What does this fold into?
Amino acid sequence: MRTSRLSVTCLAPVVISLSLLACDASTPAASNTRTKAQAKALPVAVHVSPRVLLAQQASAQRAEGMSPPRRIPDPPFVSNEVARFDQPWAMTFLPDGRLLVTEKPGHLRLINVATRQTGEILGVPTVAYGGQGGLGDVILHPQYASNGLVYLSYAEEGSGGRGAAIARARLQLDASGNSGSLQNLQVIWRQTPKVSGDAHYSHRLLFDREGKLWVSSGERQKGSPAQDLQSNLGKILRLNDDGTPASGNPFADQGGRAAQVWSYGHRNVLGLALDATGRLWAHEMGPAGGDELNLIERGSNYGWPIVSNGDNYDGSPIPDHPTRPEFNAPEISWTPVIAPAGFVIYNGDLFPYFQNYGFIGGLASQALIQVQLNATPSEVRRYPMGRRIREVEQGPDGALWLLEDGADARLLKLTPNRS
Ligand SMILES: [Ca+2]
Ligand SMILES: [Ca+2]
Ligand SMILES: [Ca+2]
It folds into this structure.
């Protein structure tokens, strides 16, 4: 990042043919001043070369948190299979580089990605496996290194039907191998009320820099709860690490479940990610058409089920977002759908040309989808992967990792194409 900043900064004076001055990292301050003064004195109608425009564009993109253009190999990455799992759903890396993987039927695996040796972590709660339900997300507490806490989301049976739950426990690893167990397991949050059916749990988890726990809670395919602040379905929630409502939430004064809510009017949110400036982005599955990427704002209503850029599966229309400007409209919407699942905003060093871009797994689209998150968010490229992609993660060394969906699903490591 630092290297690129210097090189682009230095590009402008050279290609403007201003001059005169050698430009490198050691350019003295006095010379910089002189260059700026000369640049300021240039006539407005000066010819600007394409390279200058590129440098200016890079500068503007940097200002918006985007990476400057670089020579990008095509394809930009190569993909290698590391392991296979049964219906994997989510993954997260331990500080030592080993990888926790959830499998929907209710297994938590630990894999040493260097040796490819895999083991199982015992003590996972009983899950309601079926349809879209089962074991879901896994993340680490921000102070995992000292407290060993992992957080799991899953579907559970209860009176009235099923709902998502979140448990936290201390991960106790065996002295050798990749097995272990969950100790002192505590259920810290539940979807309420429980309802029939086995779809749209969402239950994606994310910790922010302040140690708040973000939860996507799907509307369980019931629609209207997404607009009811006393249901925690169809919401994005902001909680403390013990599952209690975080202070400063927008509907705290309404009490009850409303105190958990940060934003509402959501459908099925299978991806949460923070960008370099701390903004929260979430994608959600639309019905027939209308998948969305949303920038999540405090107290905002994202419109479901009143508006959608898609329509109902039976073909009956749902008014589009522009008909109701009071609802927060998506930054990107997809028709036909991509069926988004898994989401990272890249901030590693291994792929300099991916800095600050979002990467979304595609189920129906069987692809990895690259999006830009600047002033004009859009899909910039779609990489066909040949299978449904369930989960995307960034590894400690900056590699991108994907989990395919379904039985006999591959764990794939993406590294830069050096050819
Ligand atoms: Ca993950
Ligand atoms: Ca919406
Ligand atoms: Ca519509």
The first strand starts at residue 77 and ends at 85. Residues 2-15 form the longest helix (14 residues). Residues 77-416 form a domain with the Neuraminidase fold (CATH 2.120.10.30).
